[in-house]
Amino acid sequence: MDAETKVAAKRAWLARAGHALIEASENEGCGMLLVRWLRFLTLWTTLLYIAVLVGLTLVSSWVGERNPTTAFLLFLPPAIWWLPALPLALMTLCLHRRALCLLALTMAWFGYDFLGWRWNLSGHEREGGNDALIVMTNNHGQHMNQSLQPFKNATQPDVIVLQESPGKASSYERSGNYAEFPFMQSVREHTILSRYPILESSALASLPGQSPKAVRFVIDWKGKQVALYSVHLHSPRETLAYQKWGPFLYGILGLPGTPWAEKRQRLQQFWNGQIADAEIVLAAIRQDSLPVIAAGDFNAPHIGYIHRMITRQLKDSHAEAGQGFGLTFPGFTNNPLSAGGPWMRIDYVFYDRHWEAIQCVTEPDRPSQHRALAATLVLKDLERSPD
């Protein structure tokens, strides 16, 4: 087919399309035709948006920190993904009610699965009676001179584990505000305050050239030995600050054989280290003969690969018994997309199969870098069953 024939065929097709539109407008009117096209556009835009949300959820969980681009996306304010839903809701309300129902169901699922919203009416009162162990955790490094006491007094924890608090046990011992914790100890950057005797403490192994990312404490809880791991994985702040100016795209562009492959590999080294550090902690927990609780600042958003890797072995107290979104970081920000508050959940209380979570409360309003959380756990058994 020569060029003139192709041009003639295109003109014929356009002519037929034009005649069809004119005929439709004469039969239905231009207004009805416009409404039909708007309904069609609204439906397919809604379906595309839903597909993006589902894809984002799957990619975040299954790839996450294993790729520099998806790792970067994990740390963005979730409001970015919510914003398109607002105009879409208005469009579907006016033009396509069935699409509105589908959009509403998708957003409810997205809020629960991706954003981690949980509905729990429990207050701060102590639950579980004498059989419950309440564990509080907080990265207290950049606390902006904000005290933990109001939240501590409200939740009445049995044990507090603090990260970025090297040698702080002596300071808490001198303070009369923590007199309910007669047992205190600092190991490296980790400090534990306990109502019950501390029997053991030891730092975990680490990657070559790196400092240990966790400390294992053993407490005597009413005659029962419990292993409590205080965890603090490396902060990704510097890597994220570098990536935000465009290098995060190397995760997509840096395919093998391209000029950006080496840059992608250099970026990925940090995230590989994060995964390896988490694996070290999980390996120690798998070998532990005691009921285990792992608490601290994991620097891993709950929508990512590291969190999924951990929750294949341990349970997340917020996911099981939390309230709201459970956001812990950053405690204060000027970012309008988070309304001045936190938008990530990177601080956790995890536990193994010996425990059951009946409550998890996140500190509501302290403007420190990290907000604390307290989980109420009940010990279900004492003997570790064989795998």
UniProtKB/TrEMBL annotation:
<dbReference type="GO" id="GO:0046872">
    <property type="term" value="F:metal ion binding"/>
</dbReference>
<dbReference type="GO" id="GO:0004527">
    <property type="term" value="F:exonuclease activity"/>
</dbReference>
<dbReference type="InterPro" id="IPR036691">
    <property type="entry name" value="Endo/exonu/phosph_ase_sf"/>
</dbReference>
<keyword id="KW-0227">DNA damage</keyword>
<dbReference type="InterPro" id="IPR051547">
    <property type="entry name" value="TDP2-like"/>
</dbReference>
<keyword id="KW-0234">DNA repair</keyword>
<keyword id="KW-0472">Membrane</keyword>
<keyword id="KW-0460">Magnesium</keyword>
<protein>
    <submittedName>
        <fullName>Uncharacterized conserved protein YafD, endonuclease/exonuclease/phosphatase (EEP) superfamily</fullName>
    </submittedName>
</protein>
<dbReference type="GO" id="GO:0004519">
    <property type="term" value="F:endonuclease activity"/>
</dbReference>
<feature type="transmembrane region" description="Helical">
    <location>
        <begin position="70"/>
        <end position="93"/>
    </location>
</feature>
<keyword id="KW-0378">Hydrolase</keyword>
<keyword id="KW-0540">Nuclease</keyword>
<keyword id="KW-1133">Transmembrane helix</keyword>
<keyword id="KW-0255">Endonuclease</keyword>
<keyword id="KW-0269">Exonuclease</keyword>
<dbReference type="InterPro" id="IPR005135">
    <property type="entry name" value="Endo/exonuclease/phosphatase"/>
</dbReference>
<dbReference type="GO" id="GO:0006281">
    <property type="term" value="P:DNA repair"/>
</dbReference>
<keyword id="KW-0812">Transmembrane</keyword>
<feature type="transmembrane region" description="Helical">
    <location>
        <begin position="41"/>
        <end position="64"/>
    </location>
</feature>
<feature type="domain" description="Endonuclease/exonuclease/phosphatase">
    <location>
        <begin position="155"/>
        <end position="370"/>
    </location>
</feature>
<dbReference type="Pfam" id="PF03372">
    <property type="entry name" value="Exo_endo_phos"/>
</dbReference>
<keyword id="KW-0479">Metal-binding</keyword>
